Amino acid sequence: MAYGQGMNLRQLRYVVATADHGTMTSAAQALYVAQPALSRAVRELERELGVELFARSGRGVVLTPVGEEVVRQARVALEAVEAIEGLSVAHGNGRGAELRVATPPSLEPELTGGLLPRFARDRPAVRVRVVRCRGREAVTAVLRSGRADLAVADLPVPGDLIAHPLEEREVVLVSPPGLRLREPVPPAALDGLRLIMPARGGASRAELDALLARLGVTPVPALESDERAAWPGWVRAGLGSLVWYRNQIDDTEGLVVRSFGPPVTRMIGLVHAHRQLSPAARDFLNFAKESGRDQH
């Protein structure tokens, strides 16, 4: 079998995940990438190797005999890459290192209010720089161009990026006490409801508009402002309700916080391009994963 020049670690990760999960759909979900991107990468590898790695079986796939051997070797290769990157972190010591982390506005509180300060205390030799992006597409662009090492982002991500899930965040409805609604709140109840919303034209507003469109609802903008600290007070004054992330609403005294039914959630993760991470970036990635495990 002749190896093609274009074979890469992304293809190997996708093939191993497909073998582990039995379907390309499940593998894509586990890796938080789009299923068509995963399928395309697997097909490209099959073309480059000139062999069939998977055969259809019912609704899923099974490895062919040569596919079993490729997956076995792929696991060895991926483990070796992890070991080499681990050595890089262990011996880099962080001296003179720089870490660039991209974030959209809605996720910056998670980054600058939690992870980065704790990491900076533990790794004072690492210079940390936050790369602020207006939205999801801008985050993807800075990772692809190499202007950021890592990004905090919504999952799933395009297939040319690697995602590491950190935490699932819940979207809730915050309203004045007098508003009578079923609990949990059906998303349809948002139709025509007066909402306090981020200002038009900003990344946070675009994000909320996309969420409401996905839910198929059209609320009424009662007040539009990016002054997040003022939102709870405006809700308390009866100007409108608020749809936002539970963990980003600190001042809930005198307010009613309701979950949606079914729950509306958002998976957050650290994302990077398919290239070797710097020692500082690898260190931060491991730090974030450990922090997530400690909180659960």
Automatic annotation (TrEMBL):
Molecular functions (GO terms)? DNA binding; DNA-binding transcription factor activity
What's the short name of a Pfam family annotated to this entry?
A: HTH_1
Q: Which GO terms describe its cellular component?
A: protein-DNA complex
Keywords, comma-separated and alphabetical? DNA-binding, Transcription, Transcription regulation
Question: Which PROSITE patterns does the entry link to?
Answer: HTH_LYSR
Gene3D superfamilies, A to Z: 3.40.190.290, Winged helix-like DNA-binding domain superfamily/Winged helix DNA-binding domain (1.10.10.10)
Per the database record, which ranges form the HTH lysR-type domain? 7-64
Report the sequence similarity comment from the record: Belongs to the LysR transcriptional regulatory family.
- Protein's UniProt name: LysR family transcriptional regulator
Name the lineage: Bacteria, Bacillati, Actinomycetota, Actinomycetes, Streptosporangiales
